[in-house]
Structure formats: C-alpha cells, structure tokens
Predict the structure.
Amino acid sequence: MKELINKYDFKFKKKFGQNFLKDNNILSNIVTKSEVDKDTLVIEIGVGAASLTTLLSVSSKNVLAYEIDKELKPIIDETLKDKNNVEVKYQDFLDSNPKEDIKKYNYKKLYVVANLPYYITTPIIEKIINDKLGVDKIVIMVQKEVGDRFNAKVGSKEYNSLTIFLNYYFEINKLMNVSRNSFIPAPNVDSVVVEMKKRNKSYNVNNEELFFKLVRDSFQYKRKNLRNNLKNYNLENIEKILKKIGKDLTVRAESLTIEDFVEISNSL
Ligand code: SAM
C-alpha cells in the first residue's frame, strides 16, 4: 500500500477521515470474524487503498464499494486489477442509492463491512438502517468511544438514544480493539471493531415513529428526569407503566431498558 501511495503521490485528506489500515493481521481478522462467504454480497463504505476490499473480494460473492475521493482511483484500480467481483462507486455514500445499486446482484446474505470514516459514523449507520436494505450483518471499525455506546449497559454513562436505536434492530458485540498505531496516518483515537447482527425476533412496537421520538425526547436533556423531558406527553399513562416496574417520573432515561420504552410507547 505504501508503495502505491508514494507512486501516485497520494496525500491523505483529514476531511474525509482517511486513516488507512496497515496491519495485515487486523485486516484478515476483520474478514474472518465477519464470516463473509461465497453467498454474501458485501457493501463496503470507504475503499481507501482497497486493502480491506481485496480480502473481502476473495471471501465473498461480490463487493459493492463506495469511495468519495476520486483521487484514490488509480491506486484502487491497480490494487483491484485482477478482481472481477468488485464494483467501486466514486460517490458520497450518504448521497448514494444502495437500494437501487444492489438490485442487479444475486446473493443470499447482505453484509456491510467497513472501516468507517469517523466524522460520519452515525449518519452512515442511520442511512443503512433507514434505507431498509435488508442487511443481515454489519461489521464496522469505529472510534472506541463511539463503539462503547453501541452496546452500553443500561445505567452506564455511555447509554443513550443511539444505543437504543441500534439495539432495537441488532444484537451487538465487540469483536476486537484496534490500536491507533495500526493506521497510516495514526489517528489520535483508538478504535474497535463491532459486529451488529440483525435480530431474529423484533420488538412488539405499535408505532415505530412514536417509539423513536419518545426515546429521543426522553434523552433530550441528560440531566433531566422523564417528567421534565416528556412534558408534552400523556404523563399519567407513563406514570402507570413506570409504577409497574417500581419507578416513577423522577427516573432518568438512562435507567430504562428498551423493553421499558416499548411498554411506555405502546401505552401512549
Ligand atoms: N477501507 C480503507 C482501509 O481500511 O484502509 C479506508 C478506511 S478510511 C478510515 C475511510 C475511507 O472512507 C477513506 O478512503 C475516505 O476517503 C472514505 N470516505 C470518507 N467519507 C466518505 C463518504 N461520505 N462516502 C464514501 N467514502 C467516504
């Protein structure tokens, strides 16, 4: 990779979160642990110098990849010249239409595997979910502090509305820690690789829009309790549900489980 970066005089761009993985063990571990196989279509976001893309192409049926930086094209073309199951789209993933792009592929499983640009981690995950692509599994490298929020335990300081949003759809596990020294250039944070597997059984929510609004509003002001954050809601109904779990309106959102929020939202 270094050779190609020098050959094409590529300059890393901070604004695109360009920290490329240089550690081959970590790259192959990501692919092994993601359990990509010949029935899998992989969506990769952020190709970089195509190190992860190359390994993914060997293990998967097809790779559909998005890269915002066209200046990487000569490096990517050279790295992937013998790979005929990879399509790279040079565009901003956030403006892309993956639902349309995956239509031409035949596959049994759809995975997202990526070393994400950290400046847009949450919008990317939200897009993957909101586009309803039918993703079976997401394996992503994210900044450690962000990854800690994904599977934070109820009551901890990392637990927030994003935790609930993600755990509503996925079972989340940390796969490995990755030191900042595994990248060029080295970022000033450490990273984790997180796996999110689509839940087999979904929660019984009557109205998803209302559920997610309730969760967001409950966490709006971290220091405030539910009575204050949910002023515009039917507090009588909410109080009844809280009573059943031995709590009242002075509780803070971080003490409530997904199941508690499901019950509250279904009572509204
Ligand atoms: N996958 C490579 C690796 O593991 O070495 C590169 C990872 S690097 C952290 C993130 C990559 O995402 C960069 O190549 C960057 O140019 C690209 N990127 C940044 N913003 C993007 C966006 N909005 N859409 C698509 N790619 C983006």
The beta strands are 20-21, 40-45, 62-66, 86-89, 109-115, 137-143, 170-178, 183-184, 191-198. Residues 16-21, 45-48, 51-52, 66-69, 92-94, 115, 117, 120 surround S-adenosylmethionine (CB under 6 Å). The chain has a mean pLDDT of 96. The radius of gyration is 21 Å.
